[in-house]
Amino acid sequence: MLILLSPSKTLDLETPIKVKDFTQPDFLDQATTLNQKLKKLSRIKLAELLKVSPQLAELNYERNQAWTTPFSPDNARPAALTFKGDVYEGLNATTFKKKDWKFAQEHLRILSGLYGLLRPLDLIQAYRLEMGTKWDINSKTKNLYQFWDEQLLESVQEILAKQKKPVLVNLASNEYFKAVKAKQLEVPIVTPVFKDFKNGDYKVISFFAKKARGVMAAYIVQNQIKDVENLKSFDGD
């Protein structure tokens, strides 16, 4: 079983990190290429690209300039403990035990516009770059979907090929899941839809749905679920 999550715009860069293990992103070379392009953008151009306020453009301009390799625990943080938002509130990775981290490293991936595909303990530095961003990276590449092309699909295929019961549990947003080109995957894909009962009907309420994705991901990790049938016992929140 492989779980896919989206990243979050909000980052936690302050909370002390208690885990001692970490890994390096598989696509760090590609991330470096993108960062070098971002470094060349002025604050005004960056605001236009990211569609953010001048204040956020300033913050991310400074982040881009400070972004540097090699990554180490001194200048970077594990992805699952850095992303902060509804999904990651639900995931609550700070409660993971050693066995949980081991399972998560094998069965959980976070999609990212800058880093491509991340394991939970992959080190990252602060950034903002949505997967759906339209960006003339070069003469042939007009957006990040074209930049990543088949790379994320191939990576996902490699992970699933190593599993006895390959199944993809899609807990990512449409914007990010699109980058995987999942139609080319020859495995079952499960995309849970979380709804709340309101005004006599079941509806998707964004905040609760996002948090539930994280809660389900944590449920899979902490119970080491490998059989999709066992997802039916999920009762988080």
Annotation keywords:
five-stranded mixed sheet; two-stranded antiparallel ribbon; 9 helices; alpha/beta; single chain; 237 residues; 15% strand
Describe the structure.
- The chain has 237 residues and is of the alpha/beta class.
- The chain has nine helices and eleven strands.
- The strands form four sheets. The protein has a five-stranded mixed β-sheet with strand order 4-3-1-8-9, with helices on both faces. Strands 2-5 form a two-stranded antiparallel ribbon. A two-stranded antiparallel ribbon has the order 6-7.
- Helix 2 packs across helix 3.
- The model has no long low-confidence stretch (mean pLDDT 96).
Largest β-sheet summary: 5 strands, mixed
Shape: globular
DSSP helix fraction = 25-40%
Give the beta-strand count.
11
Query: Could you spell the SSE succession in H and E letters?
Result: EHHHEHHEEEEEHHEHEEEH
The parts where pLDDT drops under 50 for at least 5 residues are none
Strand order of the largest sheet: 4-3-1-8-9
Q: By helix and strand content, what is the structural category?
A: alpha/beta
Q: Roughly what is the average pLDDT, rounded to an integer?
A: 96
* Number of helices, where a helix is a run of at least 4 consecutive DSSP H or I residues: 9
> What amount of the residues lies in strands?
15-25%
Using only CA atoms, what is the Rg? 18 Å
Termini, distance in Å? Answer: 22 Å
